[in-house]
């Protein structure tokens, strides 16, 4: 049996690397209903949720955007900032008032470049988040749009 994936920053990154990231964090707040980013837009920052909830959504032709996952305390908002071409693959909107730590993507990428072990650790963390979100998107889209019984939940 596989160990559960740990995608929240405090559990996914060693204390030294968390502290290094937190030194460049900026505290931000957004009211409910704020669009943090749109699918296809430039991914130049990311956030860690302090309080509140953010819905990740995906455009579906001819329908309202499908909410793929809701993120809360200590979860990473945004992963596209790490991978070329640095374009958002999903959209994000605050479901409740949000307080978060915001990070400048270019600065974090430079930190990863300067310290390869730090870079590998951040990439592994973000990669685990991507894998988790991909699975969540698959399950959610099957729930919403597939004929009954066509999805395999196992």
Quick structural overview:
The chain has 154 residues and is an alpha+beta fold.
Description:
This protein is of the alpha+beta class and 154 residues long. It has one domain (9-145): Jelly Rolls (Sandwich), CATH 2.60.120.10. It has helices at residues 9-12, 15-22, 105-114, 116-145, and strands spanning 26-30, 35-37, 45-51, 54-58, 66-71, 76-77, 91-94, 98-104. The strands form two sheets. A four-stranded antiparallel sheet has the order 1-8-3-6. It has a four-stranded antiparallel sheet with strand order 2-7-4-5. A hairpin with a 7-residue loop joins β4 and β5. α3 (105-114) crosses α4. The longest helix has 30 residues, at 116-145. The radius of gyration is 16 Å and the shape is globular. The two termini are 13 Å apart. 23% of the residues are buried.
Output the keywords:
about 25% strand; single chain; cNMP-bd_dom_sf; Cyclic nucleotide-binding domain-containing protein; about 150 residues; cNMP-bd_dom; four-stranded antiparallel beta sheet; disordered N terminus; Jelly Rolls; about 35% helix; RmlC-like_jellyroll; alpha+beta
Globular, elongated, flat, extended or rod-shaped: what is the shape?
A: globular
Strand content: 25-35%
Low-confidence stretches: 1-5
How far from one another are the termini? 13 Å
CATH architecture: Sandwich
CATH fold descriptor: Jelly Rolls
Helical coverage, percent range: 25-40%
Structural class: alpha+beta
Radius of gyration: 16 Å
Average residue-wise pLDDT = 87
Could you tell me the number of beta strands? 8
Q: Order the strands across the largest sheet as they lie in space.
A: 1-8-3-6
What does the largest sheet look like?
4 strands, antiparallel
Query: How many distinct folded domains?
Result: 1
Which superfamily, in CATH terms, is the homologous superfamily? Answer: Jelly Rolls
What is the number of helical segments per DSSP (H or I, 4+ residues)? 4
- Name of the CATH first level: Mainly Beta
H and E order: HHEEEEEEEEHH
Protein name: Cyclic nucleotide-binding domain-containing protein
InterPro entries: cNMP-bd_dom, cNMP-bd_dom_sf, RmlC-like_jellyroll
């Amino acid at each position: 049996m596989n160990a559960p994936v740990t995608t929240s920053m405090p559990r996914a990154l060693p204390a030294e690397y968390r502290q290094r990231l937190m030194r460049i964090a900026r505290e931000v707040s957004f009211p409910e209903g704020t669009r943090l980013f749109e699918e296809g837009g430039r991914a130049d920052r990311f956030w860690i949720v302090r309080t509140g909830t953010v819905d990740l959504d995906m455009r579906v032709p001819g329908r309202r955007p499908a909410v793929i996952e809701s993120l809360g305390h200590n979860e990473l908002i945004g992963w596209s900032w790490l991978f070329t071409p640095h374009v958002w693959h999903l959209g994000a909107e605050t479901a409740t008032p949000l307080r978060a730590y915001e990070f400048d993507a270019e600065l974090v990428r430079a930190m990863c470049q300067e310290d390869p072990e730090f870079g590998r650790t951040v990439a592994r963390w973000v990669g685990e988040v991507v894998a988790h979100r991909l699975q969540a998107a698959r399950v959610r889209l099957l729930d919403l749009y597939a004929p009954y019984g066509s999805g395999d939940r196992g």
